[in-house]
Amino acid sequence: MDSEIGLRVDGTPRRLTVDTRTTLLDALRERLGVTSPKKGCDHGQCGACTVLVDGRRVLSCLTLAVARDGAEVVTAEGLAPDGELHPVQRAFIDRDAFQCGYCTPGQVVSAVGMLDELDRGWPSAATGTGEPELDDAEIAERMSGNLCRCAAYANIVPAVREAGR
Amino acid sequence: MTAIGTDLARRDGTVKVTGTATYAYEAPVERPAYAHPVQATIARGRIRDIEIEDAETLDGVLTVLTPDNAERLADTDDKELAVLQSDEVAFRGQLVGVVVAETSEVAREAAGLVRVTYDEAEHDAELATERGSYVPEQLNAGYPTESAQGDVDAAMASAETTIERTYTTAMYHNNPLEPHTTTALWDGDSLTLWDSTQGVHPLRSTIAPIFGLDEERVRVICPYVGGGFGSKGTAHANVTLATLAARAVPGRPVRLALTRQQMFSLAGYRTPTIQRMRLAADADGRLSAIAIDVVEQTSRIKEYAEQTGTPTRIMYAAENRSVTHRLVPLDVPVPSWMRAPGDCPGMFGPEVAMDELAERLGVDPIELRIRNEPSVDPDTGKPFSSRNLVACLLAGADRFDWADRDLRPGVRRSGDWLVGTGVAASTYPVHRMPASTAVIRREAGRYVVEIGAADLGTGTWTTLPQIAADALDVPVSDVEVRIGDTRYPMASVAGGSSGMTTWGSAVVEAARAFRDKFGQDPADGDEADGSVGPADEDHAMHAFGAQFVEAHVHADTGELRVPRLLGVFAAGRIINPRTARSQFIGGMTMGLSMALHEHSVLDPRTGHVVNHDLAEYHVSVNADVTDVEATWIDEHDPYVNAMGSKGIGEIGIVGTAAAVSNAVWHATGVRVRDLPITLDKVLAALP
Ligand code: FES
Ligand code: FES
Description:
Chain A: Keywords: Iron, Metal-binding, Oxidoreductase. Chain A: InterPro entries: 2Fe-2S-bd (IPR002888), 2Fe-2S-bd_dom_sf (IPR036884), 2Fe-2S_ferredoxin-like_sf (IPR036010), 2Fe-2S_ferredoxin-type (IPR001041), 2Fe2S_fd_BS (IPR006058), Aldehyde_Oxdr_Iron-Sulfur (IPR052914), Beta-grasp_dom_sf (IPR012675). The structure holds two protein chains of two kinds. Chain A is of the alpha+beta class. Chain A has two domains: 2-75, Roll (Ubiquitin-like (UB roll)); 87-164, DNA polymerase, domain 1 (Orthogonal Bundle). Chain A has five helices and five strands, in the order E-E-H-E-E-E-H-H-H-H. In chain A, strands 2-1-5-3-4 form a five-stranded mixed sheet, sandwiched between helices. In chain A, helix 2 crosses helix 5. By secondary structure, chain B is of the alpha+beta class. Chain B has three domains: 24-122 and 175-266, Aldehyde oxidase/xanthine dehydrogenase, molybdopterin binding domain (Aldehyde Oxidoreductase, domain 4); 334-430 and 539-683, Aldehyde Oxidoreductase, domain 4 (2-Layer Sandwich), CATH 3.30.365; 434-531, 2-Layer Sandwich (Aldehyde Oxidoreductase, domain 4), CATH 3.30.365. In chain B, the strands form six sheets. In chain B, strands 3-5-1-12-9-10-11 form a seven-stranded mixed sheet. A five-stranded mixed sheet of chain B has the order 7-15-14-13-8, with helices on both faces. A five-stranded mixed sheet of chain B has the order 16-17-22-23-26, sandwiched between helices. Chains A and B meet through helix 1, helix 2, helix 3, helix 4 and helix 5 of A and helix 1, helix 3, helix 15 and strand 26 of B. The complex binds FE2/S2 (inorganic) cluster (2 copies). One FE2/S2 (inorganic) cluster (FES) binds next to loops of chain A.
C-alpha cells in the first residue's frame, strides 16, 4: 500500500509516495536520492543510517517513513549547509577519524546528537553519580552504536572531544 | 623530495564527512530497478522445482530469474560466478534466483514468494580433522604448498626443549561496512557496472568473458569503496547476478545490494585453520627446528588455499624446517581473501608457540626472538632487502616499559582485575603486481594523473598525488589524480598490500617519461605514460612489526579487556603519516576484534552461519578500544620500489591476536590456543 507523506529534509520540504513498508532510510536513499545516510545492515545494528529526526538521533533503517510524516530530518549533508562544515565534520577530517567513509555520515550525525544529549545532562552507562562529563569513556560508550569496520575509533573519540569543547 | 612523508589531510575528507561521496549503490542513474536474490536453504542437493508464479504476478515485479529461465553464460568455468546455470546446490545460501522489481520492497517481498523444493543430499560442512583432505597444487598467491629443510623429527627427538601444540583460528567474515553492491546497466551490447570493488580492471577482466564480451564493451566505475578487506578484491556471485538481472530488463539500470545476512554466504570469508606447531630448541632457546602443519577448508566448487604456513618460512632461523598444508573440501561457501591472507591466521600459532617456549625456558619473549633472528631469509637463502624486526621489538619494549616486566604469570592485580602484558611479532610480504600503467597529462596548468586504482579507505586519493608530486618535483597542490574507472589506464587490484608499490611505481615511471619528453615547461595537453617494472628478484622483501598488548582479566567473571595496544612497524618509507597511522591502528583493532570477538558459527547440521548479522557476529566497537597506538621505524629500503615504501594495509592485523593471547596468559596463567579468547576459556582456571 502506498501513502503520500511530507518530510523536511536538510531544510527542504519534500513530498513523496512511500510503500507503508518503506523505511525512512530507503525513503531518503531510494525515493528522494538523499544518499548521505548509509545502509550497513538494515537491522539497527551498525549505525550507518543515523539521522536526526526532530533533533534526536535515530536509526533510519528501523524507522518507518509513514510514521514520520511531517518530521524534520537532518543528515550529515544537511549539517554542512552551503559547504560550511560542522565543527564535528572538521574535527573528523583533522583527526583522520575515518578511512573508507561509509560509516562516517552516521558517526558524524551520531556525534552531533550525542553532544546534545550530553549537554542536556542525559546519563549513559559510563556516567558515574554526578552530571555526565565530556570525557573519553562517555564518548566511547555513547558512540558504540556506530560500528566502524575500518576501526577509526581511536581517532573518532578525540575528534568528538575536540568538537564538543 | 618533500611531499612523501608529509602529514596531509585526506582529499576526499569533505565528501566523506558529508556523505556526498557516491558508493556503488548510489550511482546516478535514471529509473533504477531493484534486485533481490533468492538463496538455497539446503547445504547440498538438487533443485527439484521452482515455482515463480506468485512472485511474477506481484504488482511491480519486472522479472524473476532462476536456473530454469536465466540466460546461458558464455563462460561457466568459475563455478562460484556461474550463477543460475545449474540445478545443483553446493552450499547453503547459494544463489538460486533473483527478482527484479520497481522498488526494493516489492523485490524483497517477491523473492520471499519464490518457492523452491529440493532433493537433498548428505552434506559435510564441518572442519574438524584432516579427514578427506588433499594437498593442493599451490597456495593462494602462488606459494608452494610444502617446504622442508633438514629433518624436523630428528631435531625434535634430540632437542633439549620442544614445544608441540595445536592452535586454531576461527571462521571470519570480512564484513566491510558497505555491503557488496552493484548498479548494472546494459546499453545494447555495452555494459556499465558501478561496483564496490578493490579493482575496476580486474573486475572487468573477470566479468567480460562470463558474458561473452570484449573488455572494451565493459566499463567499471568505482571512485569510493566502503571497505573491502579482501572481500571486494575478487568478483563474487553478486556481481554476475546483478549483471544477469540487468540484462533481463534492457535499458533499465538495476541496483543490487547484498543484505548483511547474505554476505555471510556469498561474499567470501577466511577459512578456519588448525595449526600443529613444533619447535625444538637448546637450553638458550636457539631453535633447531620449526614446523607448522596446517589443515583448512575449501569449498567443493572452487578451490581456495589460504597460505597459512608462509610466515613460518621466514620468521626465525632454524636448520630443520617444515611447512605443510592440507585442504578439506566441504559443502560450504567459497572462502577467499581476508585482510592479510596467510599471515594473519598463520602468525597466531607460531607466535603463541614462541611465547610458550619462552615460558618453558624462563627467557624473556623478546630476547627469545632476538636469539632466533636469521641473517638471511631461511627459506630461500636470499638476503632481506631490509629487516628491522629487532628494532621494532626494542622500540616497543622501550615504550611499553618492558624492562621492568615480571616473567611470572598470574601475579599482578589491579583491584579485581588480573593484569598482564604480551608481545608478538608481525610480518607481511612486499607484493608487486606485474602490470599497471599511469598516464600524466598537463591540463589547465596542473598535472593530472590517471590510473584505474582504488581507494578503499587506504588513502589512495591523497597518497598518489604525494608520489606524483615528488616524481615531477612540483608542489602536491599542483597534482590531481583520477582513479576508480576503467576509462583510465589499467591498474592492478588493491590487494596483498600491493597498491602503492605497484601503482606508485607506475606513476614514478610516468613522471620520468613525462619529464624526459617535455622537460620542465610542458604545454597543455602534453602527456606521457609509464608502467610498473619487474620486481627485484635478488632479495627477500617483507615488512615487519611488533605488537604489544596489555590485557586485564576480571578475577571473578573472566571478563577480558584490552586497555592498551601498541604496534611498532618497519615498513619502509611512510608516504603519509596521518593515513598510515589510521591503516595501522585499523588493522590492529581488527586484530583485537579477531582475538576477542570474531567467530562465524557454522552449524554443521545445516551448513548455515547462524550468527549472520552484526548483532551476533561481534566486531570491536568504540568502547572496546581505549588506547591503541602505532608508530614506525625510519626504514630505508632501496630495493622494494622507487618510493622505498612497503605495503601497510594488512600488517597491522598480523600478530595482534597472538599478542593478546600471550598477554592473557601473563595475566592469568591460562593459555588460550583456540580463538576467540572468550571468558569461558579462562574462567575455570582463575584463582
Ligand atoms: S543500516 Fe541502520 S543501523 Fe545499520
Ligand atoms: S571508515 Fe570505514 S567503516 Fe568507518
